[in-house]
Design brief:
This protein is mainly alpha-helical. Helices cover 69% and strands 0% of the residues. The chain has eleven helices and no strands. 48% of the residues are buried.
């Protein structure tokens, strides 16, 4: 198996299991309906661990453009290989989403709300605030890359490493996932969102393209920042890129604070404006 095929297959299985647990939890008339956030976060953690076991020895199991870009920015992965990895991840996530659609085929008609159907495929904010949502995705992915590099610096009992990575994803979901649904992976969000747009899903609505750039840009910026911060703190390698991404992050935080402090409060009983 080539690294391209490994990344495609690994990302496909990642979404079959990750999107599958979301579908089982929120679609109507499944046996797991309403089982909640803990089930989703645990399911996504195991959904990451299994493909790492399957293809980690072939491609390194990035399964995520933010991981590929973060490792490249830190000097641990060749930039010239990044486009092929990212393409494979996007295709794999699209195929994984298609499998989830087929698997839960009777339940799309049973589920009335179009937003619930989209949530199986793509993330969305609990409160739609552009800059704050961008911060959530940046910070969550920065923690992911920092954690992955920290895990990689330690020796574990043989075969345990992928499971530790899965627990890292569970921790991020529990602690940092409730604001935007913790995409922390552009392929995991964009590939399935494209699938949602083109598949004949009964009663589907908008694919929410105005929001779609946030779970792409935020994880890419956060992944590179997290990897560079780890290298600076633990290896002593300070890249000029670190200052660029740190300045971008500070700028985004300042804009988010300013816009939030100057936004008009919602009146009693009024819904949050999107």
């Amino acid at each position: 198996m080539t690294p391209f095929a490994a990344e495609l297959v690994g990302t496909m299985f990642l979404f079959i299991l990750g999107g599958g647990v979301v579908a089982g939890t929120i679609l109507h008339k499944t046996k797991a309906e309403g089982s909640g956030w803990i089930v989703i976060t645990l399911g996504w953690g195991f959904a990451v661990a299994f493909p790492v076991y399957a293809v980690g020895g072939i491609s390194g199991a990035h399964l995520n453009p933010a991981v590929t870009l973060g490792l490249a920015a830190a000097g641990d992965f060749p930039w010239e290989q990044a486009p092929a990895y990212i393409l494979a991840q996007m295709i794999g996530a699209f195929l994984g989403a298609s499998f989830v659609w087929v698997y839960y085929l009777p339940h799309w008609k049973e589920t009335r709300d179009p937003g619930t159907k989209l949530a199986v495929f793509a993330t969305g904010p609990a409160v739609r605030k552009t800059w704050s949502n961008l911060i959530s995705e940046m910070l969550g992915t920065a923690v992911l890359l920092f954690g992955l590099m920290a895990i990689g610096a330690h020796r574990f009992t043989e075969g345990l490493n992928p499971l530790i990575v899965g627990f890292l994803v569970v921790s991020i979901g529990l602690s940092l996932g409730a604001t935007t649904g913790y995409a922390i992976n552009p392929a995991r969000d964009l590939g399935p969102r494209l699938a949602h747009a083109v598949l004949p899903i009964v009663g589907k609505g908008s694919s929410d393209w105005p929001y779609a750039w946030i779970p792409v840009v935020g994880p890419c910026l956060g992944g590179m920042l997290g990897a560079l911060v780890y290298k600076a703190l633990f290896v002593g390698t300070v890249s000029p890129l670190l200052w660029v991404f740190a300045a971008l992050a500070v700028g985004i935080v300042l804009v988010a604070v300013f816009t939030e402090n100057h936004s008009r409060p919602e009146g009693p009983g009024q819904p949050e404006k999107n």
